[in-house]
Amino acid sequence: MKHIGIAGNIGAGKTTLCEALSKHFDWHVQYEDTSNNPYLSDFYFDMQRWAFNLQVYFLNSRFKQIVDIQKGSQTVIQDRTIYEDAHIFAPNLHEMGLMSSRDFDNYFSLFNIMMSTIHPPDLLIYIKASIPTLVSHIHQRGRDYEGNMSLDYLKKLNQRYDAFIEQYKDSPVVFVPADELDFKNNKEDLAKVIDLVSAQVKGLF
Fold this sequence. Notes:
The protein is globular and about 45 Å long. By secondary structure, it is α/β, with parallel strands linked by helices. The longest helix has 25 residues, at 47-71. The chain has eight helices and five strands, in the order βαβααβααβααβα. It has helices at residues 14-25, 40-45, 47-71, 82-95, 101-115, 131-141, 151-167, 187-203; strands at residues 3-8, 28-30, 76-79, 123-128, 173-177.
């Protein structure tokens, strides 16, 4: 097993769980590129202008990570998957009128070409969180550019996440209920998540 993907909405706790699982299982982490992303801050202030640029940047970044994972010999846990870019964020922006049909069709064509050259993750971990939990986490981390994010935007993303996970069949899925398990601050809750992942990992061998 070389590739574990963590999926979840903005503020679900993907990075926190990545770090905890990588420490426990001795996995390498591939983080989502937010600190050096040249479009992210602009996007939250003017979504329509920067939506396409941002999504292409994320798609490119995620694809390069997967190529490196599949070429390497380490077991890697990836903070957000390429599926989320193409099946959740880009379609949501298109539906909201923030990405034109021309740009979306171009984007999705590029995604399909990329997917024809790579394999899905060996395991997908999905962190499911309600809007109040997401908002609480977002406020706690205090990123300035996320201050303009609307509740409607988060709700639409959550709906798409639920629909995507329901039809996802490319690899086994571990469900982590973030409303019930505070894996960041509670060691017992983290242990429960580790047990869920361990059971699935053992089943893959």
